[in-house]
Amino acid sequence: MNSASAYITGSCIIRHNRIYLNGALLWEADQELELQEFLRAGYDRFSGQYPKFHKMDALSKLGWLAAEVLLKDAGVKLLPPEKVGMVLSNRSASLDTDLRYYSTVKDIASPALFVYTLANIVMGEICIRHGFKGENTFFVSDTFDTELMSTYPAQLLAVTPLQACLCGWVEVMEQQYEVALFLIENKQSEMGQPLTGAALSSLYQPE
Amino acid sequence: MADLKAQIIEQLNLQEVAPESIGNDQSLFSKEGLGLDSIDALELIVLLQQHYNLRIANPEQGPQIFQSVRTMATYITANQTVQA
């Protein structure tokens, strides 16, 4: 489905300890780093000064870091907060954190882990960071459904007050992770292209 | 109190906070202090249970106990003495 009023204006892919911005390799960390080490290194390089990052679970850290990179120079942050929404998806929901939390229950259940036992918390962390207050939804599916992730955000931009929407895939299970985060806007930009499933697939390019 | 500060940092994942930067009387929850939140408060309760085997019998005591590192240390010392 083509949408004449929805454009992909930015992308951030994180996989294999590499971060790609708009299709180009932005940063590559040591391949030996484990996920938490990679996330800390990414935080130090692209952000810092946000201590709450260290309290997040891996899913939230991944989504938060991708948003940090993707939105660094994005004008979307100048939009009214209620005009920016989010639609994310993944395969494992919050299972990675659920299992960690469950392992604490036999001793003393961890409140800090408990608050991350929902997949959509990652969207909350991104919204808190950037002040977004628009509609958001989290889907769980086996693979990154580029058709859904093109038609649904396009529909949101067409029939709701949203003018921009972050959409994509934020998956983590133990050391396996992958993020594909896209900025969708209702206005064309220099680097933008119409939002279609094929365009998302091309930018996603799973390895 | 140095040990308690280190335990708080580890329990609350305050990775960018040095133990020596926390004042003994610094507020734990105000924005001018450490700026902890409600989840941190629950983690501090867990800390008391895990490290000192202490349970807060009266929840209304919480704000006083967790006012600062010094008030926490005072509570720990007093209650461990009572237990002994």
Automatic annotation (TrEMBL), chain A:
SUPFAM superfamilies given in the database record: Thiolase-like
Entry's Gene Ontology molecular function annotations: acyltransferase activity
Protein name according to UniProt: Beta-ketoacyl synthase-like protein
Origin species: Chitinophaga niastensis
TrEMBL record, chain B:
Pfam families: PP-binding (PF00550)
Highest taxon in the source lineage: Bacteria
Domain Carrier: 1-80
Protein name: Acyl carrier protein
